[in-house]
Amino acid sequence: MSSRFRNSIWTLVSLALLAGCDREKSNPRGQPLAETIPDTSPDTVFPGDAKPRPLDPRAADYEQNAFAIAQGQQLFGAMNCVGCHAHGGGGMGPALMDSQWRYGGRIDQIAQSIAKGRPNGMPAWEGKLTDRQIWQLAAFVRSLSGQAPKDAVAARADELSNTPPQTQTKREPALPSDSAQQ
Amino acid sequence: MTRRGLIVCSFLLCLAACSGIQTPLGNSGADDSSFIRLFVTFLVVCTVMYLLVVGALAGALANRRRLLTVEEGTHHESSPWIRRALIGWAALIVAGLVGLTIASFFTDRAAAKRAMRPQFTVKIIANQWWWDIIYTTPDVSQAVHTANELHLPVGVEAEVSLESNDVIHSFWVPNLAGKQDLIPGRTTDIQLLPTKTGLYRGQCAEFCGIQHANMALAVQVESREAFLRWIAQQRRAAFAPTTPTELAGYHYFTTHECSSCHSIAGTPANGQVGPDLTHVASRRTIAAGALPMSSGNLYGWVADPQSQKPGNKMPTIGLAPNELHAVVAYLQRLK
Amino acid sequence: MTPRSKGRATKREPVLRDGPDLTGSDLEERLEKTWSRPRGFIGWLASVDHKEIGRRYIFTALGFLAAAGLLALHMRLQLMFPDNDILGPSAFNEAFTMHGTTMMFLFAVPVMQGVQIYLTPIMVGTRAMAFPRLTAFSYYMYLFGGLFLWAGHFLHFGPDNGWFNYVPLSGPQYGVGKRSDAWAQTITFTEVAALAVAVTLVATIFKQRAPGMTLARMPIFVWSTLVTSLMVVFSMPAIALVSGLLLSDRLVGTQFFNPVEHGDPLLYQHLFWFFGHPEVYIIFLPATGFVSEIVATFSRRTIFGYPIVVLSLVGTGILAFGLWVHHMFATGLPRVGYSFYTAASMAVSIPTGLQIFCWIATIWDGRPRLQVPMLYVIGFIVTFVIGGLSGIIIAAVPLDLQVHDTYFIVAHFHYVLIGGAVFPLLGAITYWYPKLTGRMMSERLGNISFWTIFLGFQLAFFPMHIAGLMGMPRRVYTYPAGMGLELPNMLSSIGSFVVALAVLMFVVNMAASFRRGERAGPDPWDAASLEWATASPPPWYNFAHIPAVESRAPLWDLKDDLPVVHGLRVDDRELLMTSVISASPDVREPSATPSIWPLISAIAVAVTFIGSVFSPWALVFGAAPVGIALTAWFWPKLPGPFAEPQIT
Question: What is the ipTM for the molecules in this complex?
């Protein structure tokens, strides 16, 4: 067969090989001492030079990983996040499905919020959950506003129906912290 | 087949399985003698039918040298006795199957009738991949909450109510009874009437995920007195730490990751996600039968559960050595 | 195809038909031209010849058998010792899921359908299937479904929840990623393919039999094909539905199986097993058809009790639909209801018992010759009956509640599937190999492979009964030491390698005999049915003249004097349709020519199905190519310049 045909087949195969990688990886053990949550700040408040920190490269391992999002979903219920945040609609705590993020809506910023806690009632989970579990929760929280790839989220949980199917959640990109709508 | 033949068969079967702690041929539940009887009946009838078929086949093949003068072709008249044999065979099959169906039906009815008078209840909630066991009482303060180990008094009928927190599991303690599925959204039940004391093993019998193979259950059948002693001990709050290491372990447990999922009665640790650990050191196994209980295994489990039972819900925390010593020392205090 | 001239009167050439004027090599040349397909790669892809498609089905299915067999060997290596670490839990779970799914959906049903596609037209005396392009389409759907499943396996989104993939484990919350979606969509492919083939076979059998081949004169294999195909039509929709409901829950968030929102996990089980139980008879009944044909030929007499065998086939087919709850005895449904299913499960063995009697009676009253196909029949009887009897045991509720989901069940179904379907299949391949290739398989190597697989099978699977009774559940990637499970597992593992060796020998026999086997004429076994009346391998057009039939064993009764019918066109594809029951000639119908559109349609449908697993937009964007392909496929053929006058 011609070399062009062969090359295009090869490209397609490589693309396909990569396609399943991030989503389906399942590494239950992880690397316990290496999954630290970096010290990130909410995006308009940072010391020294006026640039936000680049996104931690480990973020993709969680954000696009179906296993991480599923674990995060289970932890969300098990750790009673629904008590304050409901299933993303908020209550005592702010809504997680919208585009407004007081302390930043990037996954590492959300993980930081979960780990360190925030004023007005967000408990600090650092030391109560492993860092890996916090990353998984952050990945799930990201999926509530539609940020996760649609083929990595579960359409629903086996519980009372409380949101539209997650596979159809509209993507709400996070507004910057100093925007007027916060 | 005489009664003597049946006894011989059951004896042989029992011999084959006599050391089994997880076998239906162990003859220790109320149902099990009827299981063995029914099984042997079926086995005998089926063996007889099989020998008839294979014998006929052998005869047909052996016959082939004798019929050298048979005319080949279509309009072959079969010997008349073969037609009679066909009717006889059909009658034999039907009679055999009707007999076996009736035997099965009556065994089932007898088991159901026996199961009508439970004297106490246990609730078992299956999770991926462990068993949550609650001895319910009308007075809630007297309820006993444990995990992965079931104690039963001998000769007393127990009604076990079965629920599931996540996927379909199956409760199966073969020495005591057949299996019953635990289906989310439904409550099923099973009645156990153990007739012999001993330690038995049960296992989840419906594929429930990555660690289905390691979801076992230790079942201790003991005398009434021993059972009541055990229940009384399980009702107590956890033993307080005595040494500084245990105290450090208590402190770590109740303020760090452990208490997010586990509960220990009498302490601030009140997590509802994982097994109750109030009397964990009194149990025979760790992690639903994945490891036998011992100091070394406890260290290995707490340090790195994911390498022992990969994929289970308990994360590997990455404890520092002093933290590990402290937590394990405290856990070993929880008899 | 010559262009149609506009308006001008053209001199009409007489329509060529076979008959006393046109016969012999002249006829064969013209038929060859009409019925062959274009040469080359595109021509091969566009083929609608049932023999070619049947061969493709069989070879592809044997390929999947090998793949699933390798997985089985891998699993047996892991289970050889307690607490082994060759395969970790997730790899093992993927292995048994892929093994079961491949064997059931990609090997067992397709191989039976493949043999049915190959044999049915030549057994009933016609030139093609009723819907040749649909058959081609179905092969491509099957191939793409199988490739999709295995691609998923290698790309880490293959299913890992068992071949029945129960909810809630496979549901949206606990079935993480795209694994269960891949499983469900593979089902969609294979069930479309199976349904298409079933429909074609029923139509062919009902309407295209040779004149005189009344229903009561059809070969038993054709009866088994008919019953199986009707079973497919009634049972496959259930699995189509359940895989669709599962996909819907997972992708779109419906609540069919969510108990909290008034769905029910048991609905899945009911729907699955309503298909799942008839499925195993869909696999078994064609095997009984093989056995009937082989027994008759090798006993040198017609099958004893033809009406009883036929009624048994029909009876089994009907009764099989009433048994499914016996897979659910542990779920907590009302016990009295269970008794009905116990009785029904016992009853379904009565027709099979009668068939076994008829086979043995045929051997008894015939002159059996113990060549390789007959050895496989003997192996079948000795092995399958054990499986059937262990089935009787587990039909009883108190017994099933102990051995359900243990290795006792694994032993039972391998006995009935391997003993009851694979052994007859191997015998059938040996028996019809001369017809397919024109050469005989080696008798000596065939003997050795038979004994190896027979003894290896007993060694591999009999100890599993013991392991189940000793408490070993199914689908466990390891087991603890000290429970008495080491010996049965070790024996099973050794036996599995012996079976693998035997299968390898059989395949080597098939491959080597293709070039070096003894050449075979049209009828090397001296058999009775119509497929042996034509050359080996048959020409494109199957028969130079359509035969007419006067009895159940046409080649035995009318040895050199097989009557034929004349009058079918030779310059265009034409088939003779006969009436349903008495097979009297009815109409002549044109038959489809080769076309690339079934392949293109299959590609369009496959892309749509596969894409929809990952995004619902695939359904929107895929509808257009599918529509275009189907339109091109069904574009009406203009009547040629020499069309016959329509008789209204």
Answer: 0.93
